[in-house]
Amino acid sequence: MLMIHIKKYYETITSHEIPTKRYNSLHISPVHIHKNKKCHKDAILALGDEIVTHLQSTQMVPVGYATETASEKVAAEH
Question: pTM for this structure?
Answer without folding.
Answer: 0.70
